[in-house]
Amino acid sequence: ASRELGLQLFMSPLVLTSSGAVDVELRVSARHGAPFTSAELRLEAFANARASRVEKLLLSETAPGVYRAQIGAGLRGLWEIRVNVTRGTARYRAVLRREIKKAGAA
């Protein structure tokens, strides 16, 4: 089902703030580039160094096709992020790997 939907996910860079939180922003587009709106996005995210500590997030749609949440206590390093997108009976799953960096780091 994931492949049939043909969704594209674009994740903004993950940056550790001075408070230790990490803002997560995902842009979801349909096959032809239109924003994929009114979906439910859930994430399971964990640092590879601490795979037993899984952050579960429900993202809020803040603009058409733009979904946001915050990891309360992030760690620098490589993270695995499992994305589940649901709209009606349509389901899409993806696994992303991203680096969380300290603010100001290149």
Largest sheet: 8 strands, mixed
Rg over CA atoms: 14 Å
- Dominant shape: globular
State the strand order across the main sheet.
1-3-6-5-4-7-8-2
Q: Beta-strand percentage?
A: over 45%
Total DSSP E strands: 8
Provide mean pLDDT, rounded: 88
Describe this entry's structure for a reader.
With 106 residues, this protein is mostly beta strands. It is built from one helix and eight strands; from the N terminus they run H-E-E-E-E-E-E-E-E. It is globular, with a radius of gyration of 14 Å. It starts with a helix and ends with a strand.
SSE blueprint:
Elements: H1 2-5, E1 8-11, E2 14-16, E3 22-29, E4 40-47, E5 55-63, E6 66-71, E7 77-87, E8 90-102
Parallel strand pairs: 2-8
Antiparallel strand pairs: 1-3, 3-6, 4-5, 4-7, 5-6, 7-8
List keywords for this structure.
106 residues, 1 helix, 8-stranded mixed sheet, mainly beta
Put the structure in a nutshell.
With 106 residues, the protein is mainly β. It has one helix at 2-5; strands spanning 8-11, 14-16, 22-29, 40-47, 55-63, 66-71, 77-87, 90-102. A hairpin with a 7-residue loop joins strand 4 and strand 5.
